Amino acid sequence: MPASLSTCPKPQLEELQSALRAQYQRHCEANHALDLTRGKPSTAQLDLSDALDGILAGNYRAEDGSDCRNYGGLHGLPELRQLGATLLGTSAEQTIAGGSSSLTLMYFTLLFAKLFGLAGAPPWQLHRQPKILCPVPGYDRHFAICERLGIEMITVAMRSDGPDMDAVEALLAEDDEIVGMWNVPKYSNPTGITYSDAVVRRIAALGPRAQPGFLVLWDNAYAVHDIAAKGDPLTAIAPLAQAAGTEVAQFASTSKITHAGAGVSFMAGSQALIESMVEQLGIAMIGPDKVNQLRHVALLKAGGLAELMAGHQALLAPRFAAVEEALSAHFSGSELLSWSRPNGGYFVSVDTLPGVASRVVALAAAAGVKLTPAGATFPYNRDPADRNIRLAPSFPSLEDVVSTMQVFCCCVQLASVEQQLANG
């Protein structure tokens, strides 16, 4: 493929299109059933934590002597809260441990903030139209929560070191309806970038610039999910935010560490934020699954977490290397595609030429390859440039990742040539 299509004469483009259509037809005839849609752990990754089954050997007593089979303990087991605090760079006293999904805690946080207010702040529903800042491309489930709760989303561009903070600060200065800001600060979904120290410090200082009740939402889902031999460092936001007077709700889970559907989750924040969350949660539940929490303590203590993550790294690294190898082979030096090269996390973010992403996804689907819908990484599923696609290579086998990438690259090339010919 030429580096640029705009300089190709029409006969050459037509010849390229013919060759690519023949290649694409062969992919269609191969009866593929491939899927790169969501960042699920593979079966081999789940196998790494099978020691959870039976690990308690009938001993259900926590370190404080309480029986984990019984009611209570809304904050979660103290020993597990300490593990969560270590992940998030805060204290156990300001961390709670919950059930299998941090997304549930995020949903409740926004729901409680809107209806009742948190940490003594007024409810968001008192605003004419509460709004949240959303760095893009970003995480579709964050956007879905906002859309369901009627919170307007304002996009902010994601740069190589994090969100465009000049834009964030300007928006806060001009719009007093902004009540929060989403963040995936380490190996961001889907770009894979990690926020720089300077960006973390500016986010930690946003509180005094915003209206009362402003909440930084810090979804640190990939805190220990390194792929490269040397992972990215992330500055701890908690002490900086506390010094500045900014409320930060931090989240993490073991969903991509142990068994994805049977893990534990964490939330951390100021003492006032955590206690107001626990007060609200106490109306909805008696307590989390403390037996499962105790199982995780037994598995992850005494270096178990580091050993487990090394196992994940060994399984994920070849898959991400296969994605990089295919993209480099087909598009190195080309304007047709740019992509992220993350040191960790679960995704590779690619940008096609403007107006091409939706066509790539449709072509891939017809060839038996499922991709995350174009636009999913933007609020309301609308990518204004129609160019971003999220690739998730964790779940398929390495062989299937290699096959999928060949189909994907063909679809990008074909869709790009089609567009150039259409534009004449």
UniProtKB/TrEMBL annotation:
It comes from Gammaproteobacteria bacterium LSUCC0057. The keyword Amino-acid biosynthesis does not apply. Keywords: Aminotransferase, Transferase. It holds the Pfam family Asp_aminotransf. One of its GO terms (molecular function) is L-aspartate:2-oxoglutarate aminotransferase activity. The keyword Aminoacyl-tRNA synthetase does not apply. This is Aminotransferase class I/II-fold pyridoxal phosphate-dependent enzyme. InterPro entries: AspAT_Ic, PyrdxlP-dep_Trfase, PyrdxlP-dep_Trfase_major, PyrdxlP-dep_Trfase_small.
